Amino acid sequence: MGSRTARYEKSFVGGVRTFCSHNIYRNGFLKLNYISIIFYLKYKQKLLMEDVHFAQKRFMNKFEALKSIFGYDSFREGQEKIIDDILSGRDVLGIMPTGAGKSLCYQVPALVFKGITIVVSPLISLMKDQVRGLNEAGVHAAFINSSLTEGQINKALLLASKGQYKIIYVAPERLDTYSFINFAKAADISQVTVDEAHCISQWGQDFRPGYLRIEKFISLLPKRPVVSAFTATATKKVRDDILNSLKLKDPAIMVTGFDRDNLYFGVETPARKTDFVFDYVKKHAGQSGIIYCATRKNVDQLYLFLLKQGIDVLRYHAGLSGEERKQNQEEFIYDNKSVIVATNAFGMGIDKSNVRYVIHYNMPQSLENYYQEAGRAGRDMEEAECILLYSGQDVMINKFLLESKEENTDLEPAEILSLRIKDEEKLKAMTNYCTTHDCLRRYILDYFGDDSDCSCDKCSNCRAEFEQEDITTYAQAVISCVLEINGRYGAAVVAGILSGSGASKIKNIALGTLQSYGSLSNLSEGAIREIIAELILQQILTTSPDRYSLLRTGEMADAVLIGEKTVILKRKIKKSEESKRIRPSGINKKKGNVILNSKGDELFEKLRFLRKIIAADEKVPPYIVFSDKTLVDMCARLPFDKEQMLRVSGVGDNKYDRYGERFIEVIREYTKGEKIQTVIEE
Ligand code: ADP
Ligand code: MG
């Protein structure tokens, strides 16, 4: 359907051009030709509209939509139930983690329904991405937001009222406008979907006042459509806000597991974060990755450092010009460059499915933020890594950032206070994630209230082995020293004093009067530094937020000093190869999760290259053409004809028509038409 339209549009432009040159220049009958052109345009317009009506009239069921439009064989967890509920006319609230496939839950019903689906979405980039993806799959969709001119908006609404679009994305503010309300009142609206529905709640991370108007808009419609809402934020407060604000009617609430079992979670505390990042990026050359930093300054510093080391990186933060941001984002999305260093301004609305790693250079302010940002890795369900680089300093940076956060002037003082307290609680939970020695995956799931079983061999704690040492008496000595010098020095000086260093600087400070001088002389300075680092990790000590990192005592210091709390140092002794090999149930057993061998890899690169050429021609990001996962599936299955190609996950009818043959050609050429071995048998 869409391909027919797309071809008509292309041939239409081409047609007018040939028509013009042919008639005007050869025959010279200008007036006559003017009339013919108008006639020709009308004729083409008619064809176009017929094509549209063909698309609208051909109703499909949910399985047809899944296979022929999206190219998938089966629904993922939760999808089918949500789709059935929506199709039966019941409101739904779907709470599923990032990458779980929420879009499909409302897009499939949108294709089955007779009327139009309106999707409220918070961001222009998000809308563009979704509409691009739908258009590629052959679905008539459009977006209406402030990136269009008034004229373009009117034109889009005109086409919408003629039934050109099955799915229309709008920004919440649009729902208030006279022209949009008028259109919606006259149109046949089957479904209103609220994407990123947590934006309705002040308890979520991205509150958007415009979202509060959605319910009023729905109430203005002559016939109430089914209302579906989706978010990845699971906390009860946010959920209640969504249900209340949207006035969902007897909604089916679907909460799917929050586990992303293709993601590895790691917390590292490297001595130098820059070196860690450099090594990591080098080891993962060619793979797509995002490195998040807490501040613009950190982004710039790390960016320049990596550039100096010869790594071709991009950067993104709100301090860059709009033009530069747009360009850098596109370079990343179009796979022209693979690594981007960014603040959290980067990412929401980016559905790049082949991000293989997300490194957090600093600890974020909450696990909500962390899971959302880290969750941008591996949306194609292939293996990916999420690594957080933690240092005690991060806690101070975040406290400082929270304190200097601008207040929302719409809120009452009591509300502001309660938000503050909430922020601090979130920061604590985030810090505990970084310092816990227990399973990181379990920690995340518990935080989001998901108590389903999880077996994990894919986090830095489950893969490590620890030895434990009671360091309480050492800790008491360190705390006494910090109190004695009254927080005036950093870790190096404190370690020097405690070890009884003969360095003149230390001697001058001590001058024989400090009781702590030499009180841990049985330990090396290095060992004392390790203990201090652990005390900072456990927040028994804190550091000043400036570059001097002066040591101070933390909340728990008193309890340690009077012997109420023991301090255990857990040392990671080695990575457990054993635990890496054992794959407990539920992890990594997914159908289609294959590992390519060197031949498979080589073919994958060839297909990737073809995808890049097509993407450039079509002016869309490569992952919109086919995801990495789809290319991997092609390499594993080696389709040689249409029937086989349509069995590849992610290849629907429309995409087959447009690109299928070209991929088959490359596969045939590489394999010389034989089913060679391209995967590693497990
Ligand atoms: P989110 O829940 O974050 O909104 P998306 O809707 O963007 O997630 O989907 C994430 C990815 O999963 C997309 O690339 C999408 O095409 C893919 N996907 C969704 N449903 C399925 C399915 N049933 N089978 C295979 N891939 C799917
Ligand atoms: Mg989404």
Helical residues, percent: 40-55%
CATH class of the largest domain: Alpha Beta
Taking all Cα atoms into account, the compactness measure Rg is: 29 Å
Nearest-integer average pLDDT: 84
Individual helix count = 28
Beta-strand content estimate: 5-15%
Q: What is the rounded distance between the termini?
A: 41 Å
What are the salient characteristics of this protein?
682 residues; alpha/beta; Rossmann fold; seven-stranded parallel sheet; six-stranded parallel sheet; globular; binds adenosine-5'-diphosphate; binds magnesium ion
Write a brief caption for the model.
By secondary structure, the protein is an alpha/beta fold.
Describe it.
The protein folds into five domains: 53 residues; 194 residues, Rossmann fold (3-Layer(aba) Sandwich), CATH 3.40.50; 185 residues, P-loop containing nucleotide triphosphate hydrolases (Rossmann fold, 3-Layer(aba) Sandwich), CATH 3.40.50.300; 107 residues, Orthogonal Bundle (Arc Repressor Mutant, subunit A); 82 residues, DNA polymerase, domain 1. Helix 1 packs antiparallel against helix 2, helix 4 packs parallel to helix 5 and helix 19 crosses helix 21. The radius of gyration is 29 Å and the shape is globular. The chain is α/β, with parallel strands linked by helices and 682 residues long. The strands form four sheets. It has a seven-stranded parallel sheet with strand order 3-4-2-5-6-1-7, with helices on both faces. A six-stranded parallel sheet has the order 8-13-12-9-11-10, sandwiched between helices. Strands 14-17 form a two-stranded antiparallel ribbon. Bound molecules: adenosine-5'-diphosphate and magnesium ion (MG). Magnesium ion binds next to helix 5.
